[in-house]
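The following record pairs a protein chain with its ligand, zinc ion.
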Amino acid sequence: MRQRGLLLVIVMGLGMQNSAGGSAAATGRMDVATVEVPPRVGENRRYVEYRRPLVPNPLVKLPIGEITPRGWLRHQLELMRDGFVGHLPEISKWCNPEVSAWMSPDGEGEHGWEELPYWLKGFGDLGYVLKDERIIREARAWIDGILSSQEPDGYFGPRANKKKHDVWPNMIALNVLQSFHEATGDERVIPFMTRYFRWQMNLPRENLLPGSWQKIRAGDNLESIYWLYNRTGEEWLLELGHVIHQRTARWDKHIASWHGVNICQAFREPAVYYVQTRDRAHLDAAERNYQTVTALYGQVPGGMFGADENCRPGYHGPRQAAETCSMVELMHSFELLLTFTGDPLFADRCEEIAFNSLPASLTPDLKGLHYLTGPNMVQLDQRNKAPGLDNGGCMLAYNPHRYRCCQHNVAFGWPYYAEHLWMATRDNGLAAVLYAACEVKAKVADAVEVTIKETTDYPFDEPVTFKLSTARPVRFPLYLRIPCWCEDAAVWVNGESVNTNVKPSAYVRIERTWADGDEVKLVLHMHIDVTTWRTNADSASVRRGPLWYSLKIGERWKRYGGTDEWPAFEVFPTTPCNYGLVLDERNPASSFNVHTKPAGVADQPFTLDGAPIEIRAKGKRIPAWKLDEQGLVGRLQASPVRSDEPVETITLIPMGCGRLRISAFPLIGEGAEAHEWVEPPPPRHRASNCSHDINALSNGWEPKSSSDRDVPRFTWWPGRGTTEWVTYRFDNPRKVASCEVYWFDDRPQRAYYRVPLSWKIYYRAGDDWREVTGASAYGTEVNQYNRVTFESVETSELKLEATLREGFSGGILEWRVGT
Ligand SMILES: [Zn+2]
């Protein structure tokens, strides 16, 4: 599925000549066809479409509020309402209306960057989707604050950003206003946005998107310009569209940033611009970006790719992770691509992330989140995981008080998803594009209002039924998306089978005169499929329909911080994690038994015990596959793997139900081609704290100065003013009589790192550490090696202990050991 290109935008099949109200209405004929995408021709007379000369969008977003989610999806939103998203101002200083620059009419105040609009974007939509009066009211107060902050020149929001020529936070605020307008029709929004874009148009070019994240992410700005153009038709907005694209990082040429979140929201920029240029190359460039990243870092289950902060060469396996921001941004990219291409592939990709990755980024009660979620992740403790994961410090423990960007940005994931379940089509019909229980009340044909009640336990079950209510019979086309993995979907209308050549990655289009009480049933048959990841040690993942499956691992939740109301947790495994799969080679799918729980789907199905489906499989333990020093699961080694352990029955659950998971498994093999799993040697260096690259301290790079940022460095960040240590292990015991240390110290530009107050060297003697004797001075000079000599010892490992200066962290650029 990942390798597929974009579908050509063509319409196949029958019935197009019979648009709403045509002669067929009189005959009552039913036309059923399979189409690759809904038509781009025709004019939807009910909803705001892409306006000429923009490329007509085959799927048109319904205004917020027309779709009412039900079932487990509604419950996610209710948990958000009751969880930290619904109460963030109580715990986040960035959402404090008393001091926020976003709340003040003059744009002065504190915390004026991305955090507040990130949260408000999801919080407001959560209120509109749930029709929750409290949330709508609280969001409204912030929105009124933003709307009151416009200057005569059109700029709005925190003035500190204006001084820095940074319009990135305003891009998010524009999304807030767009949703507010869709939900309420508030008359202030359109002229407000018009004045703001005038201000952008009048800026000296060098001050528009000069650099940094705004330059990388300005596709968001472009999208908002088109949103406004579709409503006003003012042509200068399209001129501004060209300008914005020209000032944006060149995603049409290459991957302009390897930061995970940047990729997830900005890879699509050329496709956004395509709606204006009509240049197919722009549309293709977005897909090329996605394929480039996926081929290198996305050969894993769950729909994400490994960029635990940034994509890094050599770090592409399933223990690499995705930031929570990345998940919600990538889902949104696919929602947008779905609207302006109609290609059902983008719905498949959006669902894959929503069901398999996003749930594990949050605690089951949605009262806490973590920064990074990976397909193979078996212990979520607060300890540093760098360099195995990028960025040091706590990234995996669940905590509603941490993770700043994700803590605020996660809010829009589920609400936006719920808003895109159904879309309008240009032939005045409706399309079910993402499946979940819901009710859609929308206008079809010549603005006749119909209600469709969608009942399903999807993605945990195969049937989806649609029951129609209408005041009078009305002819319109109904489109049902057939996912890429479904080879044998079946459709009934009022109990009568209408299976005409139903194909995957397409839509079934049913046009007829619909009457009150009509019922359509769709069954999306799900079959087990085993995917082998060639570039990730030939590991294997199990998929059934839209869900990937993961080893069921017992969870022990341990509170480590937070407040009683908003606690923080680490999660530790209570059952073994190191299984390889035993497959029947000739027929891998026969190695599994699917058990659907008779109790049905729980309100919150994304939990260990609530998993609605379990798959029994065969596995063998691999004793040498262990956690590494930092608590990350050991890197995968080449499959097939030999194991002398007994065959056991193991249980797999949907990947989104497990916070601890093994989703990419080694395969067990026998005979000459099976590999022995080699226990990796202990690491060369270990440290009490580590940010940046621990191996940098013995990589041989010569620093030019203590503040040299061009050479990799090891640091004890976030430790400050503390006593810290770092070790140096040798492959064989050796004689040591001196050490030379080049300290990292970020003076004069910055003020985070200083040479330590003091330090000492210890050597390993059996299980003990002993301080070296006869040591000369332990120097703390900058811009040079600090050499210490001592009485010669023979040892396999040294330990350097440093006392850091009050308020400062410390680090080492290079540590040399001499005889
Ligand atoms: Zn984030």
